[in-house]
Amino acid sequence: MPKVELHLHLDGAFTLDFLFDLIQKYDGDPEIKSIADLRNRFIFTDFPHFVETWFWKNRFFREPIDFEESVYRTLKELSFQNIVYLEAFFSPWDYKESGVVSTNIVQANLNAVKRAEKDFNIRCRLIVDITRDHGHEHAIDRLNEITPFLGEEIIGIGLGGSEQKYQTHMFEDVFDEAKRRGFHCVAHAGEVMGPKSIWSAIKDLKVERIGHGVRAIEDPELVEYLRIEQIPLEICVVSNIKTGIYSGFTDHPFAELFSKGLLLTVNSDDPTMFGTTLADEYSILYHELNLSMLEIRNVQINAVESSFAPQGEKKKIKEMMNRFWIDNAMSITND
Ligand SMILES: [Zn+2]
């Protein structure tokens, strides 16, 4: 099924093969003797362990070419899943320890995106995550740093990180300025923190989409607002379970939010870190959350409509999706 992904962090989507090669390139790690060891390294005991592992793997990205090759190989893998279009986050300020200049990381990712489009026919636009955890004082500097790159590939800013420590409203002026400069604006909200953070992303940051947003379910007034305004939510089911927001599929509110008429998309977040893929996420919607094939198709189309692609590109992707469903009409009726 042709797919569109709107919430994937390139920093958490490297391929295990490539990271293994990087570890060897930089003198190895005595605990990592095989890909299997590496896979086991990404089984987390708790959220601090996840963060610790995140920075451990960042230590092996030491030159711009490491970033370019990593993103190129990631996009190649994503194209094998028939992801035809994605809007991917990256945060070039998370590699201080490696000493790579952030603007060189931006350029490396841009090179990878262009090479991958040519070689694998996958269109990737980029959203730079200015990251809450580095504080508001750096946020405007970061916006200034990436503004010269704003264009065909770099299209927006995002806000990930600790919602509880660095509250959403703190970044209002940065988002106002980003919007004025022509960036699309999105923010993670309503993942660790509840509805208040989502309200703030909408009212203070005036975002166009909400990353996660699942905890909107705790506020009926917010659910109604999201329904009326049709503000897209980028939901990442496996991520929410792996980080402990919900204990399992039965607790997850995707199906309930969907039945209430909200504009939902499904995404993989940090696919390598969480051991998921976008194909897996769709499979979960069908097999675990009991969405019908018709509903799956609506989620698939929601992703196209909620993307920042120009209308002409959206039309082409929807035509591709329609062809898929026409070709597979028999399997839909059988379901
Ligand atoms: Zn995310």
Structural class, by secondary structure, is: alpha/beta
**How many domains in all?**
1
The proportion of residues forming helix, as a percent range, comes to 40-55%
The largest pleated sheet is described as: 8 strands, parallel
Number of strands: 8
| CATH architecture annotation | Alpha-Beta Barrel
CATH homologous superfamily name?
Metal-dependent hydrolases
* Unreliable parts: none
Question: In CATH's first tier, which class applies?
Answer: Alpha Beta
Radius of gyration: 19 Å
The main sheet orders its strands as 1-2-3-4-5-6-7-8
| Ligand inventory | zinc ion
N-to-C order of helices and strands? EHHHHEHEHEHEHEHEHHEHHHHH
Share of residues in strands: 5-15%
The CATH topology: TIM Barrel
The first-to-last residue Cα distance is: 16 Å
Tell me the number of helical segments per DSSP (H or I, 4 or more residues long).
16
Average pLDDT:
94
What is the strand and helix layout of this fold?
Layout: E1 3-9, H1 16-25, H2 35-41, H3 47-58, H4 64-80, E2 83-90, H5 102-120, E3 123-129, H6 136-146, E4 154-158, H7 172-181, E5 184-189, H8 195-203, E6 209-212, H9 220-229, E7 233-235, H10 237-242, H11 254-259, E8 264-266, H12 271-274, H13 278-287, H14 293-306, H15 311-327, H16 329-334
Parallel strand pairs: 1-2, 2-3, 3-4, 4-5, 5-6, 6-7, 7-8
Helix pairs in contact: 4-5, 14-15
Bound molecules: zinc ion.
Zinc ion binds next to β1.
